[in-house]
Amino acid sequence: MITVTKLTVAYDDLVAVADVSLRVPPGFVLAVSGPSGAGKSSLLWALAGAVRASSGQVEVDGLTISDRPTAAAHGVVLIPQGNGLARVLTARENLSLPLLAQRTDPEAVDRQVEQALADVGLQDSGDHLVEELSGGEQQRVAVARGLAQQGRIILADESTSELDGTNRERVLDLLRREAGRGAAVIMATHDLNVAAGADGHATMDEGHLTWQRRL
Ligand code: ADP
Ligand code: ADP
C-alpha cells in the first residue's frame, strides 16, 4: 500500500506537484493522465524518493519514503520516462544490475532476468547492446528491468509511449499481472486509452490531482 499525504514538490518557485493525496492498495492499477508539464513525472519521482518533497509525505506500508535507497528497500520500482537504461550495456546487464545491487542471489537474478525478457518478448535480445535496439525495444527493456525487480510498488512513467498496439497491450497486461500478484501500480500516461484500462483514473493539471474514476 502506498499512501501519499498532501504532497507538494517545488523547484525553486515552480510548484510541480500541489498538495496531492492518494492511496493505492495492493492489487490496484491507478492511471494518472494529464498534459505535458502537469507534474506527473515529478509525482512519480517523489514517490520513488528521487526528488525531495517540499511538504507532505509518502509512505509505503506505513514507512516513510525520503530518499531513493529507502524507496528501493521498501520495494518501490520506478520505470522512468525515456527508459533510463545504460546504452553501452546489454539488455541483460541492464536488468541484472539493480538485482545484483540489491544482493539478490545470482541464480534468482538469472531466473528473474530471463523471465522478464521473455515477458516483454525480448528473450532473444538479451545480448544486444541497448543502443542497438529500436526505441520501442528499449522501452520494453526498461519495462522488463522494472518487472525483474518484483516490486511491491511499481511506478511506470509513460512506459507505453513508443509501443505499437500489440506491445502496448502486452505491457498493460504485464502491469495488471503485477497488480494481480499484489503490487500497487501507478502509471503516468497522456494516453486516455491506456488510462481507461486502469482500475482508477486521476488527472493532473498544473500540479493538482483530480479524480475521474475512483479505485
Ligand atoms: P481522507 O482520509 O481525508 O479521505 P485520503 O488521503 O484518504 O484522505 O484521501 C484524500 C482525498 O483523495 C479524499 O478525497 C479521498 O477520497 C481521495 N482518495 C485517496 N485515495 C484514493 C483512491 N485510491 N481512489 C479514490 N480516491 C482517493
Ligand atoms: P509531466 O511529467 O506531467 O510532463 P513534469 O513533472 O515533468 O510533468 O514537470 C512538471 C513541471 O516541473 C514542468 O513545469 C517542468 O518544466 C518542471 N520541472 C520538471 N523537472 C524539473 C527540474 N528538475 N527543475 C526545474 N523544473 C522542473
UniProtKB/TrEMBL annotation:
GO terms for molecular function: ATP binding; ATP hydrolysis activity; transmembrane transporter activity. Pfam families: ABC_tran (PF00005). GO terms for cellular component: plasma membrane. Keywords: ATP-binding, Nucleotide-binding. The keyword Mitochondrion does not apply. Residues 2-215 form the ABC transporter domain. It comes from the Bacteria. The keyword ATP-binding applies. This is Putative ABC transport system ATP-binding protein. It comes from Kribbella shirazensis. The lineage of its organism: Bacteria, Bacillati, Actinomycetota, Actinomycetes, Propionibacteriales.
